[in-house]
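Below is a filled-in request sheet from our internal design queue. Each sheet records the structural input a requester submitted and the sequence that came back. We keep these sheets so that new team members can see what a complete request looks like end to end.

REQUESTER: design group, bay 2
PRIORITY: normal
MODE: inverse folding
CHAIN LENGTH: 657
BACKBONE (tokenized):
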């Protein structure tokens, strides 16, 4: 086979494997095998750039940085859908439709993301754009290409425009917010805002990293199909991802039943929804039923009400982060929202509070933004009394008393005293946390207890606790067995990879991913200490702010002293390349189901992938292992039916020792 044929073959193979993984959720090869083929294609394309195919998967990596987004005028307006909120409006909608035609309805989940239009010429993706104001949108082609569920090439050579929704899966949302929190950035409030902010990034590498997803549901001006059900089938056939949870309903009762079902099951979905879209199924009636200026009359969207509650704001306290950032926190009477008790929520910063005129003793409205993060979203001004005094930002650190500083072009205030007890305590907590050194038995409360007893004053003191065993055993609520577990966890952490240590040091602007990038380039701590600003800037995805933070951190004598102490205590100072080839889950497809007591779903998935496996959300004949926790449901039963190996949490722990 010559080079051109090999490139074409690899492109087709990799696109098929990606389709099976991202669209069908049924991978047929391991990540390792995929990576081998992908790397071969990259090398061939680098040596033969003229032979790169238009639908090459290497075009999804996100290598474009734009100055701005170009505008586009939609030839067919991207209309919005009218929202309704009660079942009487569904009955009215049905009555109005039935006056024109006897139809049934396609009910589809309303994905909480942002609309996208993709135009294909001869089956090749040429332009992707946002809805904008419905008439004029923005071209986001390079960003859309990073989304694996949007095909670069269709099965047939069609000239066609399709529309759908780009969204951020809940798992991606949690991961992005964790990274932003670790890097001292403002958190996204919900999946929709995160998806919108991501797709409008001028750097497509940022988009690629955040793992957006897509469902398509509409074809513009394609006359060969007669129903919405056929549209979804056609989109599937051409390689698009559609939402499988749609249903054809014949009457209002069936529509309401569909809505009620997903109202109670929407939290189980891996993606965010905020309602159900109800469309006339027969396309031939659309023009006859008609349109308003903004919306089609042949569909409506039933919106689920956000779970929210009223409560009294009792106090605004202030947290001091490990970087010194001061965060106001609302403390209110406990309310039950989306399955949990909530009594606290961040108020972000002074500007957030003053813009909303939030005052202590106000009656406030609280909800879970994106049904994940509690937020104060409104004040009931009708219940305000003279006891509700305007908010005044503190001027000194609540812990050490140091004068606070509001940095230029930032909304946050900072305590810049590096010896502030709160900063030091939180830096130790961060160092021991799971994303950093993962000292499992040394939790936040225990660290605070040790800190208050002067047993821990710096992160390096963690590794002196083995010399204080007798003191620890005699502390309240601690016995010899507990202390042995703590010391064992500390000892294990000494062998953590260097990127975990670098992240754990708490260098400003250095999150977990940046720490890994630094260690790939500088595989020993001494090399990183001596790295020059100009050289660090050459690392992809690292800019001036991060490079300056790294250089400045290692200029400080106390930081070098800390690292030297960690060396003396036997903490690993070298970066070990992650090797998944010989891991216990190498080349295995693993499905997780049920609740695990010792791991979150993300943590277990990360371990499996680190040990060579691939995780999947659905059980199929390709599945090798099912990890079943408590309350495992239909996936467990399917695994039993297919004769797939099933392991419990204890067996999983034994395998990963």
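RETURNED SEQUENCE:
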């Amino acid at each position: 086979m010559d080079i051109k044929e090999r490139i074409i073959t690899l492109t087709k193979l990799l696109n098929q494997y990606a389709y099976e993984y991202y669209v069908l959720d049924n991978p047929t090869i391991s990540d390792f095998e995929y990576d081998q083929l992908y790397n071969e294609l990259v090398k061939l394309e680098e040596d033969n750039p003229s032979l790169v195919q238009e639908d090459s998967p290497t075009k999804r990596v996100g290598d474009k940085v734009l100055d701005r987004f170009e505008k586009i005028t939609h030839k067919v307006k991207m209309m919005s859908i009218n929202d309704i909120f009660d079942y009487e409006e569904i009955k009215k909608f049905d009555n109005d439709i039935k006056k024109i035609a006897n139809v049934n309805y396609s009910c589809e989940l309303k994905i909480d993301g942002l609309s996208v239009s993709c135009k294909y010429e001869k089956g090749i993706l040429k332009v992707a754009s946002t809805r904008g104001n419905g008439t004029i949108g923005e071209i986001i082609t390079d960003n859309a290409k990073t989304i694996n569920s949007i095909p670069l090439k269709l099965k047939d050579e069609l000239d066609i425009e399709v529309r759908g929704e780009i969204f951020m899966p809940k798992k991606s949302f949690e991961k992005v917010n964790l990274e932003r929190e670790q890097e001292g950035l403002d958190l996204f409030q919900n999946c929709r805002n995160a998806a919108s902010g991501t797709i409008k990034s001028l750097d497509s590498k940022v988009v690629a990293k955040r793992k957006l997803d897509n469902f398509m549901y509409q074809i513009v001006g394609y006359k060969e199909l007669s129903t919405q059900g056929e549209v979804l089938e056609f989109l599937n056939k051409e390689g698009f991802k559609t939402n499988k949870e749609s249903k054809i309903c014949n009457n209002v009762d069936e529509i309401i039943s569909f809505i009620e079902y997903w109202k109670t099951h929407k939290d189980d979905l891996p993606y965010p929804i905020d309602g159900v879209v109800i469309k006339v199924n027969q396309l031939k009636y659309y023009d006859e039923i008609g349109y308003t200026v903004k919306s089609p009359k042949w569909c409506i969207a039933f919106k689920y009400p956000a779970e929210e509650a009223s409560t009294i704001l009792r106090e605004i306290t202030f947290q001091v982060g490990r970087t010194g950032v001061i965060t106001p926190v609302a403390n209110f009477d406990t309310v039950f929202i989306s399955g949990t008790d909530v009594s606290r929520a961040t108020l972000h910063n002074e500007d957030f509070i003053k813009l909303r005129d939030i005052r202590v003793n106000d009656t406030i409205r609280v909800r879970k933004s994106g049904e994940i993060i509690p937020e104060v979203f409104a004040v009931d001004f009708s219940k305000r009394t003279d006891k509700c005094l305007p908010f005044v930002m503190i001027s000194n650190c609540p812990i050490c008393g140091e004068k606070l500083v509001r940095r230029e072009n930032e909304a946050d205030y900072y305590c810049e005293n590096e010896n502030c007890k709160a900063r030091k305590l939180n830096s130790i907590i961060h160092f021991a946390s799971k994303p950093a050194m993962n000292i499992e038995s040394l939790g936040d409360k225990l660290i605070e207890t040790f800190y208050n007893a002067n047993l821990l004053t710096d992160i390096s003191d963690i590794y002196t606790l083995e010399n204080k065993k007798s003191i620890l055993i005699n502390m309240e609520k601690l016995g010899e067995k507990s202390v042995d577990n703590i010391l064992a966890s500390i000892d294990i952490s000494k062998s953590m990879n260097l990127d975990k240590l670098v992240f754990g040091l708490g260098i400003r602007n250095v999150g977990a991913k940046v720490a890994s990038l630094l260690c790939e380039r500088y595989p020993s701590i001494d090399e990183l200490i001596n790295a020059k600003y100009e050289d660090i800037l050459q690392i992809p995805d690292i800019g001036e702010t991060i490079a300056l933070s790294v250089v400045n951190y290692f200029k400080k004598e106390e930081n070098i002293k800390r690292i030297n102490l960690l060396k003396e205590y036997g903490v690993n100072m070298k970066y070990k390349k992650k090797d998944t080839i010989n891991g216990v889950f190498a080349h295995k497809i693993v499905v997780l189901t049920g609740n695990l007591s010792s791991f979150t779903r993300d943590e277990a998935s990360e371990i499996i992938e680190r040990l060579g496996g691939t995780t999947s959300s659905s059980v199929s004949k390709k599945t090798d292992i099912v990890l079943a926790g408590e309350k495992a449901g239909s996936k467990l039963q399917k695994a039993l039916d297919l004769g797939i190996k099933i392991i419990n949490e204890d067996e999983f722990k034994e395998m990963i020792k």
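SHEET NOTES:
- Residues 3-23 form the longest helix (21 residues).
- The chain has a mean pLDDT of 89.
FILED BY: M.R.
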